[in-house]
Design goal:
The complex is a heterodimer of chains A (336) and B (716).
Chain A lengths: L1 H14 L5 H4 L16 H14 L7 H5 L33 H5 L29 H12 L11 H4 L20 H9 L3 H7 L34 H5 L15 H5 L22 H4 L23 H4 L25
Helix pairs in contact in A: 8-9
Chain B lengths: L2 H24 L29 E12 L4 H7 L5 E14 L2 E10 L4 E9 L3 E13 L4 E3 L8 E2 L20 E3 L2 E14 L4 E22 L2 E24 L2 E14 L3 E5 L11 E5 L4 E13 L3 E14 L24 E15 L4 E14 L5 E6 L3 E8 L5 E15 L2 E14 L6 E13 L4 E15 L24 E13 L12 E16 L4 E19 L2 E18 L8 E20 H4 L1 E20 L4 E4 L3 E15 L4 E15 L13 E2 L7 E14 L1
Parallel strand pairs in B: 7-13, 11-34
Antiparallel strand pairs in B: 1-2, 1-35, 2-3, 3-4, 4-5, 5-9, 6-8, 9-10, 10-11, 11-12, 12-15, 13-14, 15-16, 16-17, 17-18, 18-21, 19-20, 21-22, 22-23, 23-24, 24-25, 25-26, 26-27, 27-28, 28-29, 29-30, 30-31, 30-32, 32-33, 33-35
The chains are: A mainly alpha (336), B mainly beta (716).
């Protein structure tokens, strides 16, 4: 009797250890793991600053990163090894310093296993899609590249508009596309749409086919001149290639000496010679003495007679050919 | 909790806050210099998974192209004058040895437009580079001219040329041919050296040769002929300086020298017209004189966490010392001697730029910017006789006008960054211009603007920018040279006139499909931009009175799948210019309106990693259309007349294939097709189209053309 009672008690005892699921199936309440909310920009900034201050770098440097960011990855980092940034034998290159973490900051727990419902610990990322503040992104690049070409970066147009370096430059490619003229022009035109449109007009600088580039006149990293021009003024920028118009000459044409953009649109125009308006009306906007300058130069009635020279060919410049100024003693009217 | 505990807690919290703020201000950025590397142990940083850095790369691409056309426009596009087949070469060579990298980059060697760059650089030590570029602008071919020696500085008619009164009578005479072309060859030698960690020096020397054949026009009284003139110019530029970087900033000293020289001092020509009323039968045109510019500049900046100060001063001098030509090549004219043998022109230039940028801890950025440009023309003023095109000596004497300008611009801007990549900006700018010897001594242009830019769901970016400018100035006193009639209607030249300018721009971009997890339509962005600008000129009855420019841009770019990307943009722009004129000076008796419309469209498709990842295909299409209408309304005649509409229309398509045949061999093929046409009635330069302008036969471009290119690249 005692043995039977012990067996019954043992059965009761061990059965309590069975998974309760089978007994509680009908009463189960399902629980699911909620996906973690992505960090806001402020939260991310706080976390990255904290990580940067703590300085918890990875144990194995680039090897830690390349386990995931290898050639097969969607976010492959391998292109960097084809340029100077990925060379350990180049003094002060990122890979000679802290390797990937030179730019992306201390890895911290970025490589650790990610629990369900949690997000991977972030690192500093770059580009327009990154939630990292543009000035902070750029501080990484400026660690090494704050040099003569970027003297005027602070307060420049691109810096004020919070443009990250990585929105134009690609460090993980063997050759940065922006260094090639045609790709550069396309990239600039992706934001500066009016200027891209102008470069497609009938009369323009040869930007469309990569024979000139935006950086031939402008410094995208900032300059001390208006419109981030390479030289101190609009005219001095034009004179880099058009120095024959610089003067000084005996008979100057005042708007020419003042500002080339009074008459020309350097990005392109539908009129010949990149003029903002067609001649002769462009000239008539300022010239109205007696006789021919103030005559209305209309259409058909002035063809095939002596006055068609005002409308056709070079218009006023059929006679006043030295319109940018003349050094001839008899050149006051720019005809000599 | 007792008082001691509260106190302890308060102290802890206070300390935490201070540390937090301090930490924030200490780590305001992620500069490498600020990194906390105390715990870094690089012994285990073996870079096992890093590929071996290649110490040498040698790639040579042999290309063969075929152009179907050799007209000036298509030649300028392709960078090669001849039609038919031609070979050219690209090369990319690099060698790294002992930390120094040597590079050779060549593009299109063998073509008229080509590029070569050689460099040797050791980071933080030195860099030497030598660059060469040739850039050609091809003009019209087979232009017609009466002169037998196009490009000479003394243009001669054939011995049997019959001088006649109008161009209509010249078309049967013997004419020669010439081709327009301007070639620029640019050499650049740049050397930069790091003398220490903080101190660098550099020299940059550029030499440009500009040669070719262009056209200008020469007239004797009312009779003009197009002159095919040689271009033989040099421009040398030297930029040398040194800069020192200290903890809080940089100091830079720079010297710039620019030297322009023109081998052609004058162009003489024999007039093909019969002599008119005792006019000359030959003329002499001056050319651009040699000139020099020297500038010394000094720059300094200072930066701490919140404050950036920058200052730059540039002193310069422009000079021109060529001897004058004689008053006239016509010995029959009685002229006085020249007051001086040459201009001895001197212009002192001074520029300064001062900038202060202050960032507050609560996301405000305050900027103050001052610019000054002073062009002080010290050229002597003398009195000269007036001659009319080598034919007539006029009685009145004239003096030259050495124009001086002074521009000052003060800009103040406040920007509040209220969240990531979002900011609100407002600003004020005052631009003061001073002009000597012109109609208006001073103009003041005041500008106010406001901009808000933000990223908020569902948009990637939205911005709106508004600005308004008001310009006025001192009394406008017209000068005789451009408007001598006292009783004439008011005219203010548009660069000096009272003016109101309004501008507005708005932009929005968004992703219509949010689908980053699938393989199709990985990301698509649509961007729309619209802009408007209007100038209205006040207190001016004649001249430019208003202009307007509006446009809209639509761009769609999409990563259709992992290896297929697509982009399309379209841009439409409208421009209007309105001016008024008066022939009789008591009333406005004619109106001019120029209406310009321009459209452009671009489509790009790229497909990568086909055929086991070896093949990429692409297509680029662009289209551009423009029309310009000039309408003249004659109020006195109550009639309206239009100039013939200017129309230009071109489209091009480029298809390419890029195939990695093996690890070392790549094959590339492309075809470029272009259809171009322009109809500009002004540009029809038939010989006798204008009875008193002997043209050169040039006409508008209208062509279909293609270029085929195949290239084989071998990597050694």
């Amino acid at each position: 009797m005692r043995e039977i009672l012990n067996i019954i008690l043992a059965i009761i005892f061990f059965s309590s250890l069975l998974p309760t699921q089978s007994f509680a199936e009908k009463n189960t309440t399902e629980t699911t793991v909620k996906a973690a909310k992505p960090l806001t920009a402020q939260q991310l900034d706080k976390l990255l600053v904290k990580k940067f201050m703590q300085g918890k770098y990875s144990k194995k440097g680039a090897d830690s990163c390349l386990k995931c960011h290898d050639g097969a990855s969607d976010k492959s980092a391998m292109g960097i090894f084809d340029n100077v940034h990925g060379r350990q034998d180049v003094k002060n290159s990122p890979f000679a310093e802290l390797q990937c973490e030179t730019c992306h900051g201390p890895a911290g727990k970025h490589m650790s296993r990610v629990r369900k419902g949690k997000l991977r610990e972030p690192v500093i990322t770059f580009g327009t899609d990154s939630l990292v503040d543009a000035d902070k992104q750029n501080s990484v690049c400026l660690s090494c590249h704050e040099d003569r070409q970027r003297l005027a970066w602070q307060g420049s147009a691109h810096q004020s508009e919070q443009v990250p370096c990585a929105s134009c430059h690609q460090v993980h490619k063997s050759q940065d596309p922006v260094l090639f003229k045609q790709q550069q022009n396309t990239l600039c035109g992706s934001c500066h749409k009016e200027q891209l449109h102008a470069s497609n007009k009938r009369s323009s600088h040869p930007l469309k086919w990569g024979q000139m580039a935006c950086a031939d006149c402008h410094n995208p990293h900032g300059s001390f001149a208006e419109h981030e021009l390479n030289r101190p003024s609009i005219n001095q920028t034009c004179y880099q290639c058009h120095s024959e118009k610089r003067g000084p000459v005996l008979w100057e044409h005042a708007p020419v000496s003042e500002d080339c953009s009074i008459c020309h649109d350097a990005h392109g125009a539908i009129n010949a010679n990149m003029l903002k308006q067609r001649t002769p009306q462009l000239c008539q906007d300022c010239h109205t003495p007696a006789d021919h300058p103030s005559t209305a130069i209309a259409g058909s009635e002035f063809v095939n007679n002596t006055q068609s020279a005002f409308a056709l060919g070079q218009s006023c410049m059929n006679c006043h050919s030295l319109i940018h100024g003349s050094n001839h003693p008899a050149g006051r009217t720019f005809q000599r | 909790m007792n008082n001691a505990a509260y106190k302890s807690l308060f102290n802890s919290v206070t300390l935490a806050i201070c540390v937090g703020f301090t930490a924030t201000s200490l780590a305001m950025d992620f500069r490498l210099q600020n990194a906390n590397t105390k715990k870094v142990e690089k012994d285990q940083w073996l870079c096992k998974y890093c590929p071996d850095n290649t110490n040498s790369v040698a790639k040579i691409a042999v290309k063969l192209s075929n152009n179907s056309e050799d007209n000036g426009h298509f030649s300028t596009v392709t960078g090669e004058k001849k039609d038919g087949a031609y070979a050219h070469l690209d090369a990319e060579l690099s060698q790294t040895s002992s930390g120094t990298q040597y590079k050779v980059n060549a593009k299109d060697l063998g073509k008229d437009n080509s590029y070569l760059a050689l460099s040797a650089a050791k980071p933080k030590s030195y860099k030497v580079s030598l660059n060469y570029q040739s850039l050609n602008q091809f003009g019209y071919a087979q232009g017609l001219t009466p002169f037998t020696n196009a490009g000479s500085d003394s243009l001669l008619l054939p011995a049997d040329w019959q001088r006649v009164a109008t161009t209509t009578e010249m078309s049967n005479q013997q004419l020669s041919q010439f081709d327009q072309q301007i070639e620029r060859e640019n050499w650049q030698l740049a050397v930069a050296a790091d003398f220490s960690n903080n101190w660098q020096g550099y020299i940059d020397y550029q030499h440009q040769d500009k040669q070719g054949l262009g056209t200008t026009s020469g007239n004797i009284l009312t009779k003009t002929v197009i002159l095919p003139t040689a271009i033989d110019q040099q421009h040398k530029q030297l930029d040398a300086g040194s800069y020192y970087q200290y903890d809080a900033g940089t100091i830079l000293v720079n010297y710039y020298h620019s030297d322009f020289s023109n081998k052609l001092t004058a162009v003489n020509w024999q007039s093909p017209y019969s002599t008119l009323f005792g006019a000359a039968n030959s003329g002499q045109l001056s050319t651009a004189p040699d000139n020099k510019l020297d500038q010394i500049s000094i720059f300094g900046n200072y930066r701490d966490n919140n404050l950036t100060l920058q200052a730059r001063l540039i002193y310069g001098q422009l000079s021109q010392t060529d001897d004058f030509l004689a008053y006239s090549s016509n010995d029959l004219l009685a002229v006085n001697s020249l007051p001086t043998t040459g201009l001895d022109g001197k212009i002192n230039t001074f520029s300064t730029h001062l900038k202060a940028l202050y960032k507050t801890d609560n996301n405000w950025r305050l900027t103050a910017n001052y610019r000054l440009q002073d062009r002080d023309n010290k050229t002597q003023i003398n009195t000269y006789q007036q001659l009319l095109t080598d034919s007539v000596v006029l009685p009145d004497l004239i003096t030259n006008k050495p124009y001086s300008f002074k521009n000052e611009k003060l800009t103040m801007e406040a920007q509040y960054r209220f969240t990531l990549r979002s900011h609100l900006s407002m600003g004020w700018q005052l631009a003061k211009k001073e002009r000597d010897l012109q109609d208006r001594k001073n103009t003041d242009d005041e500008k106010f603007w406001f901009k808000v830019s933000s990223h908020f769901a569902p948009f990637n970016q939205v911005f709106v920018e508004l600005s308004k400018q008001f310009r006025d100035g001192s009394n406008y006193n017209r000068i005789d040279q451009t408007s001598p009639i006292d009783s004439a209607l008011a005219m203010q030249k548009y660069n000096q006139a009272d003016r109101t300018r309004e501008q507005a721009k708005a932009y929005v971009s968004f992703n219509p499909f949010s689908n980053s997890s699938n393989d199709v339509l990985i990301s698509t962005e649509v961007a729309i931009e619209g802009y408007f600008a209007r100038d209205q000129y006040q207190h001016t009855d004649i001249g430019l009175i208003a202009n307007k420019r509006n446009g809209v841009d639509l761009t769609v770019s999409s990563q259709l799948s992992k290896h297929i990307s697509f982009a399309v943009y379209s841009h439409n722009q409208w421009q209007e210019n309105h001016s008024q004129g008066s022939y009789w000076y008591s009333d406005i008796d004619w109106l001019n309106r120029q209406d310009d419309k321009s459209d452009s469209l671009g489509i790009t498709l790229a497909v990568e990693k086909l055929a086991d990842g070896k093949l990429s295909l692409g297509a680029d299409y662009s289209y551009s259309y423009a029309s310009g209408i000039t309408q003249i309304d004659s109020l006195s005649l109550n009639a309206s007349d239009n100039h013939k509409e200017l129309v230009s229309n071109f489209q091009d398509i480029k298809l390419y294939a890029d195939y990695d045949y093996s690890e070392r061999i790549n094959w590339y093929f492309s075809v470029l097709y272009q259809k171009f046409s322009e109809d500009d009635w002004r540009a029809q330069y038939d010989i006798d189209r204008i009875i008193n302008v002997l043209g050169n036969g040039f006409s508008n471009y209208d062509y279909d053309a293609y270029r085929l290119t195949t290239a084989v690249t071998y990597q050694f």
